[in-house]
Design goal:
With about 475 residues, this protein is an alpha/beta fold. The protein is built from 12 helices and 20 strands. The model has no long low-confidence stretch (mean pLDDT about 95).
Length: about 475
């Protein structure tokens, strides 16, 4: 019987999301015998309830907004939004993405996948909820994260939405209150608003989407044209018929649903990590080496959202690879070469934080580009937003950036690559910028850095004002 089974392997991976899938693959490629353990094998957060369905909703919102704004181009059009059809298309494509991931599980060597919830009984032993016992030479914890629903909102029951159930709605609600102005909250709030849903956002903090204050203030100003944003506000919630009512200092409003986007803590509670001899911090997360992902001295590694270091898919993929490899070659460990941090929020305009943000006394200088005056942005009817670039005063080497600007997801990559290559503002100005593009809108910020750092402005920099800066 399953309850009497005992399995052995070189590497056990707990969690079949992005980090876990890649960890198992990398460990197996290194010659290890592997087991991949998951309760559902649902296909992971990204395809099922995260990156892809949210972008499908945003894509529909972009089309609706484009139609509604067509008049500024001399085109008369009025969008008719069929909420049920929007959600049907979303799920149809979402399910294809999910099935693609699930198909990968069937291609793994027979016996690799074990369905169940695992917990540690020692640093080299696990037990599943069906009683199956596993002895592994090393283990990778890649259990991901779950949306948090703070206690004041739990009594609202089915009125509460998270990214776990939003995309399964049969139709769009008429009104949604949103708790949380991080990336998830802002993206989904704007998408819903552009699809005709009355939306208001509430956040206890002062900034949006992890941006520094100046860029956040500009993004808030832009987004507030489309929906209300209440910062430094913690509303009270109570049922109101089939909906709910939010009350805060100076206001009250009724909504059909409440979307809670108040963070995603790691899923670690059921693992009995203490029995593996792991040292936990105040939030119950194992203390680990961010370069090797090893937890203490134990043969346990933690990757992806489970360690809460950089809870983003591309980071989870990198961490899964190094965790899987190190688990297979334990105790001979390799170190993870971390990429330049980059976080993008897919609102309109896109927002992003790249590299290092300035702190008092760190010697960084700031150059700023204003996209309200940028030529290509004006042509596209998207002239709004700013980009701040941060660089060393001595030499002008780029260290970081923050932006809310049209085409920001692409600008963020350009800046991340420049920072990764160690380029200075002057060296970046010597690279080709085509005209007319959104990319050349960065040049005023780069020139400001050259002036503040007292360095050459690059042979290609030209005069003070070029057509790409403002037309």
């Amino acid at each position: 019987m399953a309850a009497q089974q005992a399995r052995t392997c070189d590497v056990a991976v707990i969690g079949a999301g992005t980090a876990g899938i890649i960890a198992e693959k990398r460990a197996r490629a290194a010659g290890a015998g592997t087991l991949l353990i998951d309760a559902t094998f649902s296909g992971g957060t990204c395809a099922d309830v995260g990156c892809m369905p949210s972008k499908l909703l945003i894509a529909a919102a972009d089309v609706a907004f484009g139609v509604s704004e067509a008049e500024c181009f001399g085109i008369t059009a009025t969008p008719r939004i069929d909420g049920a059809a929007v959600m049907q298309r979303l799920r149809r494509h979402r399910d294809r993405f999910v099935q693609g991931v699930r198909n990968g599980f069937s291609r793994l060597p027979e016996g690799t996948c074990l369905r169940g919830c695992a917990r540690f009984t020692g640093d080299e032993t696990l037990e599943l909820d069906d009683g199956t016992r596993i002895r592994a030479r090393a283990t990778v914890v890649a259990t991901g994260s779950e949306p948090a629903v703070p206690k004041p909102f739990q009594a609202l029951g089915a009125r509460v939405l998270t990214n776990r159930n939003l995309f399964d709605l049969p139709d769009l609600p008429e009104s949604v209150g949103v708790i949380g102005a991080g990336a998830v909250g802002i993206e989904l709030a704007q998408a819903l608003a552009r699809l005709g849903v009355r939306v208001e956002v509430f956040d206890a903090g002062r900034t949006l989407a992890g941006l520094p204050e100046g860029v956040s203030a500009e993004l808030c100003r832009i987004l507030s044209r489309e929906f209300a944003i209440h910062q430094e506000t913690e509303p009270r919630a109570e049922p109101d018929g089939e909906g709910l009512r939010l009350t805060w200092e100076g206001g009250s409003a009724r909504f059909d649903r409440l979307l809670v986007a108040a963070g995603r803590p790691p899923q670690l509670d059921a693992l009995d990590l203490e029995k593996a001899g792991l040292d936990l911090d105040g939030k119950g997360i194992p203390r680990f080496d961010p370069q090797t992902l090893q937890c203490g001295e134990q043969p346990v590694f933690i990757a992806g959202d489970a360690n809460h270091e950089r809870p983003l898919l591309h980071e989870a993929a990198d961490e899964g690879a190094i965790a899987g490899e190190n688990a297979a070659r334990f105790p001979d460990l390799a170190k993870l070469k971390r990429p330049v941090p980059m976080a993008i929020t897919f609102c309109r305009p896109d927002a992003a934080v790249i590299g290092t943000l300035p702190k008092e006394g760190d010697g960084l200088v700031t150059g700023c580009a204003d996209y309200a005056r940028q030529g290509r942005a004006r042509v596209m009817g998207r002239a709004q937003g700013i980009c701040e670039i941060y660089a060393e005063r001595d030499g002008g080497r780029l260290r970081g950036a923050a932006l809310c600007a049209p085409g920001g997801e692409h600008l963020a990559h350009e800046l991340a690559w420049a920072i990764s290559c160690g380029l200075s503002a002057s060296e970046m100005l010597d690279l080709p910028f085509y005209h007319p593009t959104l990319e050349e809108g960065l040049k005023p910020a780069l020139r400001q850095i050259c002036e503040l750092a007292a360095t050459s402005q690059g042979q290609r920099a030209g005069g003070d004002i070029l057509p790409g800066d403002q037309c």
